[in-house]
Task: structure prediction
Amino acid sequence: MSDEDFSKYPQDVQESILKYLEQLGDKERIAYFIAKEHLGTSFNVLKSIGYITWKKEQSK
Result:
């Protein structure tokens, strides 16, 4: 889904990020790409509100 290089993260984190990105709806996906484009290298999916919220829901 993404051309972003997640190889700097451990395998389990990479898998978690990919699962998160795969479950995004159309509007969320557009917002993700806009944020990534506008913030550039300062964007970190692991620190995004969407990912943090999703991760909390997964651990319930």
